[in-house]
Each structure stands twice: as C-alpha cells, then as structure tokens.
Amino acid sequence: SSLLCSYNLTPPQVNSILKANEYSFKVPEFDGKNVSSVLGFESNQLPANNMGCRSCCTESVCSNQLSLPLQALCERLFYYIAVSLLPHDTLCELEAAVEAGRPLSPILQWHKHPNDYFSREAQKLYFNSLRTYWQELIDLTSPGEIPETREALLNAFKRLDSDISLEAQVGDPNAFLHYWVLRVAFSGATACVAHIDGHDLFIANAGDARAVLGVQEEDGSFTAHTLSNDHSAQNESEVARIRSEHPPSERKTVIRQDRLLGLLMPFRAFGDVKFKWSIELQKRVLESGPDQLHENEHTKFIPPNYHTPPYLTAEPEITHHRLRPQDRFMVIGSDGLWETLHRQEVVRIVGEYLTGVHQCQPLKVGGYKVTLGQMQGLLEERKTRMSSAFEDQNSATHLMRHAVGNNEFGTVDHERLSKMLSLPEELARMYRDDITIIITQFNPHVIGAQRQEGQS
Amino acid sequence: NGSSSQLPPVPSQARVVICGGGIVGTSVAYHLAKLGWTDVVLLEQGRLGAGTTRLCAGIVSMAKPISIECQMASYSASLYQRLEKETGVKTGYVKTGSLCLAQNQDRLISLKRLASRLKVLGINCSIIKPKEAAKLQPLVNIHDLVGALHLPSDAVVSSPDVNHALAVAAAGHGVQILEQTTVQQVVVEKGHVKAVETDRGSIECDYFVNCAGQWAYELGQASEVKVSVPLHGCEHFYLLTKPLQEPVSPDMPVVIDMDGRIYARPWQGGILSGGLEKNPKPIFTEGRNQLEIQNMQEDWDHFEPILSALLRRMPSLDSAEIHQLVNCPESFTPDMRCLMGETPGVSGYYVLAGMNSSGLTFAGGAGKYLAEWMTYGYPTANVWLLDIKRFGNLQSSRTFLRHRVMEVMPLLYELKVPRWDFQTGRQLRTSPLYDRLDTQGARWMEKHGFERPKYFIPPGKDLLSLDQSKTFYKPDWFDIVGAEVKCCKEAVCVIDMSSFTKFELTSTGDQALELLQHLCANDPDVPVGHIVHTGMLNERGGYENDCSVVRLSKNCFFIISPTDQQVHCWSWIKKHMPNDPHLHLENVSWKYTALNLIGPRAMDVLAELSYVSMTPDHFPSMFCKRSCGLDEDGWSDWGEHWRC
Lengths: 456, 644
Hints:
Oligomer: heterodimer
Number of strands of chain B: 33
Strand content of chain A: 5-15%
Number of helices of chain B: 18
Structural class of chain B: alpha+beta
Largest sheet of chain B: 8 strands, mixed
Strand order of the largest sheet of chain B: 5-6-4-15-16-17-14-19
Helix content of chain A: 40-55%
Distance between the termini of chain A: 64 Å
Helix content of chain B: 25-40%
Strand content of chain B: 15-25%
Number of strands of chain A: 13
Shape of chain B: globular
Shape of chain A: globular
Strand order of the largest sheet of chain A: 1-2-13-12-6-7
Radius of gyration of chain A: 24 Å
Distance between the termini of chain B: 58 Å
Number of helices of chain A: 18
C-alpha cells in the first residue's frame, strides 16, 4: 500500500491521462441528406501500462512495440471487411485501377485513431495480402453479385487471421519486417466489430470484448441489451465447443482454471499462433526467424498438453439486431471495462451522459424521517456525482473515468482515480486491464423513419 | 358547471374592477373601500389567495433597500398588527423582530446605511454586536459575524389569513368579491378602460386594476390595447422542519443572513427557512395555468446551497427533521422594484404587481398608495421609483425578462453598492456610434434599455473584474472619470447623448405653444431658434419631467428629456393634450443621433467644422442653429441640467 500512495496526480494530470487517446466523430447532421442511422461515435483507450514513459524509458518503447501490432491488426481488419462487403463489380474496378497504376478510389473513409500506426514496409506487405484477397474474391464471385453481410464479416475475420499466420510463415528478406510479422503472429488480439447498415446491426465478435446496446425505456431510464457473447470460460457453449473440437482425453486439460490450456483467457482471438500452429511449425518458423526472437523465452515456450492444435480460432460469432427507435447507443468495450462495471451501470452512465438528464431521481422525502444533516450529506454526494459528469466532452472518456475511479457508492472518487492511474506498470496489470471503449450514438428519428418505410 | 351555476351573477357594471384575489388585490380593495369607494368588484380566477399568497413564507420585514419600500413595509406591519382586532379574523401576527446579519464589514456598512434611513422614517432599529444577536436568537452561530441590525417591529403572519382578513374587511365596506371568475379581456375605448369581459359575463367599469401577480403579464396582453407588465416568475424554495426537540419559541426573531442568502423564521415549533439562490429557476416563460402553480415540484438538489448555508448559520438544526420543501413561484421585475400605477397606454388601467418576493411585506403599503393614487391622482408618498411608466417596450419581451430576473433574484440579497449596472438583457438598443466608442475602450451602462458609455478605459489600463469592483469606497474607475471631467471643464469633449428622449410637437395654429404653456413652468414662447430649459410640473408643483424645449419654427417644438423619461413624459404630455387632429406629437428619439460638444474650447472645434460664424454675437447661449446638415441644438452646459 505504500506503493499505492507514492503517486498523487492532480485533477488536470488525471484528465490529461484520461483524455490522451480520446477521439470523436460526428456524422454531419445538416447536409440535407443525412440518412445515417448513426449520429456519431466516440472512443477512448487506456492502456494498463500508461505510466511506462514515466517509470522507465526502455520499457515504454518495449510496451509500444507490443501494442503496435494490435493496432495494425485493428486497421487491417476494417479493410478486409470493406473488401469482403464490396460487390463483384466494384472489386473489378479496384483491381483494374491497381493494374493500370491509377490512384485507388478510397475504399474506406478512415477515422484514424491518433495512435494508429503502420510502418511503410508493413503497409506494402499488407496491401499485397489484401490485393490477393480481393483477386480471389473476384474469381469466386460472379458479376452483379453483392455479398451477404453475415458471410462477409465471417470471411474477413478468418481471412485476416490466416494472412497474419501466412505472412509469419513466409517471412521477409527485410529483417525488421520479418521480426515484425512474427511479433504480430505471436501476439494475440480479440476483436468486436459492429456493422450498421440502416436498421440492420451486425456484430462480429471474437474474444472477450463485448457490445452492449443502451435501450431507453418509456420512463426515460436506460436498460442494457447485450448484443454479443463473450468467448471465455464463463460461456458454457464456448466451453462445449472447444471440448468437442478435441479428443475426450484432453477434456480436463484443454480448459484449466478457466483458461485455454490453462493460459489464455479469451477462447477466440487473432494471432496467438502458439495456440494454432503445430509444434513443428512453431519450431521451424522460430529457428528461421531473426535473432531477436531467440532472446525471447516467451515465444519458445510451448503450452502444456499441446496435442491437437489448433486450439484457438479467429472465427467470429455473428449476431444480428434490428435497430429500434428506443435503441439509443451502443457501447463496445474490451474486457477491462466489463470487469469493472456491470453492463447496466455502463448503460446508465452513458445514457445519462448523452441525454444530459441525470437519472438520479429527484429526491423525495415522502413519509420518511430525514434530518437536515442527512439530507445535506445526500445532496453533497449527488452534487459531486453530477459535477464529475461535465468534465468530459467525450462519452467514452466519461465512462472510462467511472470505470477506473468509481468507489463503492458508484461515484467517481478522485483519489482512487489518481491512484489507479499512477500505478506502476507491474502493479497496474494486477488492478486493471487495458480498457478500450467505443460508443456509437444512433439517430432514433432516422431509425424510426426507416422502420416505417420497411413496414409499408 | 354545477358549482359555477351556484355562484352569484357578475354585476353588469362597477366603478372599479380589481383582478386578483391575492394579498395585493385584496389590499387594494380594502384601501379603496376605506377611501370611500363603494362600487368595487374583486375577481379571482380560483379561490382567494390561491397563488403565491397561499405559500408565502410570512415574514414582514422593513429592511428594504429604498426608502419608499421601507415606508410601505412599515405601514404593512402596522396594518397587519391591527387587522385581527379590526376584523376579528386571526392573522397569526407575532411581533418577532428580526436580525439582519453581517458576515463582513461591507455588509455592516450597508446595514448602518439602512439603519440611518429607517431612523429618519421613525422606524425603531439598532446595530448590535454578534453576542447580543446570539442572546436574541440562540440558534444562530455567530462565529463569522461582525454585527447585526435588529428591527424589533418586524413580524411574522400567516399570509393566507391576512389575505382573508383584508377580504372580510373589504367586503364589510361593500366590495363585491367574486371567486372562480376569470378575466378574459379588458375592453378599451378611446384609450380608456371600458369594460372587463369574464368567463361569467361582462362588467362595465371606469377603472381596472391588474393585481394578477404571476398572471399579470398575460393579463396585460389580454387587453384590447396591450399593456406591458414586465415581470417574470422564478421558482422559490423554502424548507419547513418538524418541531425541534426543544420547540422554537414563536416569538423568536426572524433571521436574515443576506451573505448566506438565507432567511429563517420560527414555524410551529420548528423552522421555516428559504433563500434567494445564485442560480434561480425561471418558470412560466411560455405562459401558465392555474393548475401548474399548485403542482410545483420540490427540487432538493437545487436547494442544497441554501440548506448548507442554513446549517452553517444554525448548526443545531442538523438533527431537525424535514417536514416539507415548498416550491412557491414568485414574480420578479427588471430592476428589483415593484410595478405600480396607471399604465401609459390605457387610462384607467392600473397595475400593482411584481413584488420581487416581498409581496406580503409590501402589499399593505402598496395597496394603500395605489388606492390613494386612484382617488387623488397621486399617492401621499413619493412612489416615483415604483411607477410602471419607468419601463418601455424594450424591457417587456419574455426573453429579456427571463434573462433579467435570473440576475435580479440573487441581487436582492447582494450588497447594493452605488452605480451598479445590470449585466443581463443588455444591448437592447445602441447608438450608431456604439462600435466606434467600444473600440475606444468604452465601458457601458444601461438606461431604459439603451447602452450609454460610462467612461473610457485608457489604453494599457486594466480594471478589476466585475465581482471585485463592488465597493462602497473609491472605485477603481474614479481617476478615469476624474480625468474625463477635467477635460470637459478645461478643454473640450464630445459626449454621445443619442439615448435622450426626443419629441416633436407640431400644430397648424398655436395649439402646440398653448399646450406647452400649460405644461411648462418656464415660458416657451421664445423667438425661433431659441432654447428654453424648463420643468413640466404637476398641480402640486412637483416635477413630472425635466426638459429642454427648442423652438424650431413658430408652431414646431423639439422637446428633449432624460433617457428614462421616454414613457413617462410621453404619457404626461398625451394625458394633457386636447383631442385636436391639428396638434401632433411624435417620438423622434431614434431619428437623431445626439452629440454634446462640451468645454471651453467647444466653440473652437465647431468653428473648424462649420462655415457659420461662431462668435457669441452670431451664436449666443441657449440658441439653436442648423448647420452643414448637422443639428447643433445649442451648446450651453446642458449636461448639468440633465443629470445623466
């Protein structure tokens, strides 16, 4: 506990840490043709090791190298999904443009997170993989064919994971790039993607991130509606799936202590080839790999009871939800968020923030015996809760503040917030996970209008 | 319908119809009856005292910022004291006295100023030490106090009971009181009140009195010729506790802690405490109905600062149990003073409303003065500051009022330092030179909705922020103004006087001159081009207006009056103007930009600008000339006369 008290951050310091990675995008509202069912989205990210730069320089570089492949993966996934969703004819135009050396019409309007990063070399490699993918899609489909969303999402996930795996197996003459692709393959990432088209909301989820819908009830309060299933030991059907994929002899070892082979928390993920490749393949790839890899004991390590790989898949579970006017927003958060706050609490905090209405019910004394002193205490507590709400311009940051700083009364406690954010890395991981939050706000009017059209 | 059929029919005619059965309306009725009016009808849309009166906190305090208000409060206190004996109706009157607490020296100064004014009016009061205050009111924590003002004659009453007593007394003198009767429209003929249309029939009348409180604004709009009653409602909260373990004695003094923004009085063994918060909640901007006012919601979060201030002042209340938080809407006016008198547009249409949360305290005195006004043409006290004619149309929009009352309500408990300007509802009207003067560093004040430069901040000089600039001592702009005055006295200055009220009075014959001869104390029959400075006096020799009259031609006069006299002066002239189509009065205030060139070198500047000779022979004092398209309406030392 002496360590816990060693740092004390001022409120502005706390804010600068919380707001470092925030991002927000608003769909232009008054362009006269706004038919988007999405008003905009806001996101934020809090790494568990944000203190890296303070405590030790080398560590911070190292930690960045660890997290960068994940961000690269994140960005690539969007391109894979985009390509999967494009009609046959558009893919042909795309290919023709690349062939002729013409500039590509942008596939994505890309909302780049400030921390998103690609190395130039990797970018080239990734582009070639993506091009191979769409070339195959052109061969597989016929003119006029428009892919089905569910199928497209599924394929994009699987294809990206196999490309990651393939790139690592093939390697690269450039030593840095070779090292890079291996790092990507050996690190793991879960993904939860929402695809919204009109009132159709598809969630593709692989891993323990979660998408939750904020539904506004008639009385103005918010209830949580979970859109995705976690792929972890808490999900019985996931446990059953994994056990069924391996021989009965492995029944006890395949999931131990709620972890895959006793090691991995999420049961689905990108990368993490240690859980996918055969032992021979792992050894061969590592031996031919660059020297840096040999120094890392972690990559050499083979999970115990590793008999019938693959144990891990990046195949997403796809769920569909038809948006209704009362569906006001959706929160996609990494497991770090859901571990600290119950989904109902998450939806309440975000709902109250977005509507600006504090659902803390107006106080009524009713028939109870309340003294002035008790009432004063109660009001002061409510006041601090409200004032904390207006520090943030970003709903994701606001939620983050609660996730990290909430005390037992459900209000943000600055002291706690300060302590949690100033933990040294090794301790931080014990107290909290990485937290990534994306909050998408829906436009109930557009959704309502679309539903009426759909019915008539 | 069943109940309304049992109601007595409305009379077809009456001398006076009063609308509003709250404490203000019944007070007017009571005093009119006392002054001998026999044919008075009072209409109430619901039950008597069902509006703000029903929920009023019941404190009658003479600690008011201006003398006329103290006079009204003093009269109210004595009226309420004798009312029970006079009518036999219990009013709950208890002479508790009151303590106005001072947490700092500035507050103590303002209380001392108040005390000296009260003593002049013959109201008993004394400045006391914190320890003496604690003796009078043991609940008060005196640790942060520097002194207090003790007013032994202040009292508490039950305002619905006072309301009832006044109604009983008025009815005893022949006033007809009709409940559940809603005024729909006031009919006006030839600028005079003709009749009042209600939901139960029409009443012909000579006088109409709008005492509709929260509803007065809308009632004003519901007149054939619209009458503006500039007031706006704000929610007002107070707390009732259950009896304390050691019940509070009913004659314990009322406590007013303006620095803490709270008041507290004994209430049924417990405490009643409310305040005027910094962030008021304006309501009813979009209109209202009877139902709403009875279903006002409590808002504990909003009350929190007041509760904290109360517990700081009376820590022992910590363990007191809550009985109720009452939400009682009050109406506020743009300048913290009530609205009284005859409206400028409609003769016979009187208003008494906008009590700024002191309705009970003022009702007695204000009712008396309004009754006198209607009876004698003017009340026995100087109510100039309360005259509804101080407001023009600029200050009557709902948006303006909503913004302004949010500033006014907290100000009621703040220090009243000299030369304070309202900060909200500004820039309603500006001079054409506004931007130019603003770039020159002008600091602005508002008069009658018009922005006027107060002084100019020299480059490189910073003044204190608004909050810090409130002082009874030498203000930080003092030297700036000093330099400006010196410049006017010893060299030359230009002053933008565009805001001044300007009328043109013309006639085909000498009707204009005749009217001015009737109105003005000085002789306006001067050669063309000459200026007369004169007062317009009433029958008793009192000033109704202070103006300069320029004779532009034989039958055309240009009348210049102070900015805030626009409505009052207009209505005074109109009132005395014969109904003659050949006599014409026009308000040309916004047609002219006025510049005052002042100082011993003024002539030199003018000589540079004009080809006309500027020697005293050619351009004597109090003389008007048109030159180079520039109106130079005389350059004597007008500023001195105009008290701007």
